[in-house]
Amino acid sequence: MINLFTGMQPLEVGETSPAALIDRVRRLDASPVIDRVLVGYSSIWPHNHATAPFLLALSDKLSPIVAHRPGVMSPVAAARYFATLDLLAEGRLAINLVVGGSD
């Protein structure tokens, strides 16, 4: 069986309702083919360091790929955050290091 990841964001642009996030996460978690979801880093979405733990708490198998921009937080704080989150996620966490971008 081949599992896929999706770049679908937990919240769509302009959404402010946690109910939409909860519904989307539950649908993704129930999908037989999607096992990873990108939790992006952007000024137009809620902070991924808050939504990733929420996503994990709502799901049983879904694995977040949390985008991280080096330089936004200290390397030691980032390492502690991701190590703690991966421990609580029982190994379901992946990290996407973002080295490019736009204005």
Task: Give the secondary structure arrangement, pairings included.
Layout: E1 4-6, H1 18-30, E2 34-39, H2 48-58, E3 63-68, H3 75-88, E4 94-97
Parallel strand pairs: 1-2, 2-3, 3-4
* Overall number of strands: 4
Secondary structure class reads alpha/beta
Number of helices: 3
Cα Rg:
13 Å
- Strand content is 15-25%
Shape: globular
Helix content: 25-40%
Instruction: Calculate the mean pLDDT score and round it.
Output: 84
Structural write-up:
By secondary structure, the protein is α/β, with parallel strands linked by helices. Helices cover 37% and strands 18% of the residues. It has helices at residues 18-30, 48-58, 75-88, and strands at 4-6, 34-39, 63-68, 94-97. The chain has a 4-stranded parallel beta sheet with strand order 1-2-3-4. The longest helix is centred in the last third of the chain and has 14 residues, at 75-88.
Please supply descriptive tags for the structure shown above:
4 strands, alpha/beta, 103 residues, single chain
Précis, in short:
With 103 residues, the chain is α/β, with parallel strands linked by helices.
